[in-house]
Amino acid sequence: MDFQFANEITKLSIPCPPQDYKPKDMEAFRWVFDAIEDKRNFSPRYFLIPKVDLEKVEKIEDTNKKDLKKCNLFALSFFISEQAAKDRFDYFLQISGKKIYKRFGTQIAKCNIKPQDGVNENPNKFGHFNHHPVKKHEYEARFIVVSKL
Amino acid sequence: MEILEADRIDSLDIKLRYKGDLLYHEGPILSHFESLTQPQVHYLYKWCDCDEQYNRWLIFKVEAQKLALFLHEKMTLLELIKENKFVYFIDLDTHLNQVNTFLCPTQKIPTEYLPTEKSYFKENQYQPYAIDLKNSNRLTTLIV
Questions:
Q1: What is the pLDDT of residue A52?
Q2: Would you call A58 helix, strand, or coil by DSSP?
Q3: Which residues of B touch A53 (CB under 8 A)?
């Protein structure tokens, strides 16, 4: 597959995306900010987190651990269902207060992802999974807002 | 960010050791620290706000028994915070420099920064570190 950040992820010491990530035909849900064109909506964390956090990753001595962390930073965060996305956010809202909207978004958007869109991690206990997209995913146009957070 | 009705102080007057993240999504949301000088005294860092420059954290003390009660769903996070007369706020810049530090009366915490009255521990939302902490002997023996 022609992954979106192939130049970066092929330089890593481990296979990235990880080999157990699989193409799937499924619905995916993601927290997004109001304006769908907001650059935070479909940028992987690698480009959003503070430089200092990247520096911390760079300081990890074990090369494989370091590169796995970097690999994860190039993925997009998805949920397997609207309910899983809502439950996770609602709990953060209960704990953190209303400013959590500034950090994670204000709405849930949905897309039917196809095997040719990229590869997916097995969902964890929160119903969350990482997704490594191909270059031409066009998610900005394909993700449709389905509910407010 | 909210304007705090709090006293600005030079730095935290407590020495803490990071233990682990309790809640995490693309970065920590609730983290556990211990006092370096009093190992039975715990502190929680709760993320509460951000802007383009800073992340703001609410820091508060938790007695070991109260932490155990929270982890066993017998107290809320809000109640843990309200056990304190004062809490700290710190603003960290993108280089994790502590730019602002405040000592704030608990009654003056902005409402937007407080957890809800339903802020009970929900095991299925927490990191493995939190589950290990809940089941650790040093805390389970404090539950009567």
A1: 67
A2: helix
A3: 27
Identity of the amino acid at A59: K
pLDDT category at B139 given cuts 50, 70, 90 is confident
pLDDT of residue A36: 78
B115/A97 CB distance under 8 A:
yes
Tokens of A25: 């035909």
Segment A84-103, tens digit of pLDDT: 999 999 999 999 999 999 99
Sign of CA dihedral A100, A104, A109, A112: negative
DSSP state at residue B68: H
Q: Which uninterrupted H or E stretch holds B43?
A: strand B41-50
Which domains can be identified in chain A, with CATH numbers? 24-148 (3.20.170)
Q: What is the ipTM of this complex?
A: 0.91
Q: Is the pLDDT of residue A115 over 90?
A: yes
Q: Which residues of A touch B (CB under 8 A)?
A: 45, 49-53, 77, 88, 91-99, 102-104, 125-126, 128
Helices first, then strands: H and E counts in chain B: 4, 7
Name the token pair of A99. Answer: 């400013």
* Whether the predicted pLDDT of B144 surpasses 70: no
Kindly give, in sequence order, each residue whose CB lies less than 8 Å from that of residue A57, ignoring residues fewer than 6 positions away: A66, A69, A70, A73
- Taking every pair of C-alpha atoms in chain A, what is the biggest distance, in angstroms? 43
Sequence-separated (6 or more) residues with CB below 8 Å from residue B142: B64, B65, B68
Tokens 């899983």 belong to A84
Beta bridge partner(s), residue B102: B8, B89
Q: B98-105 and B7-8: which strand pairing?
A: antiparallel
Would you call A88 and B95 a contact, using CB atoms and an 8 Å cutoff? no
How many A×B Cβ pairs under 8 Å?
A: 62
Task: List the structure tokens of A84.
Answer: 């899983």
Contact A125 B119 (CB under 8 A): no
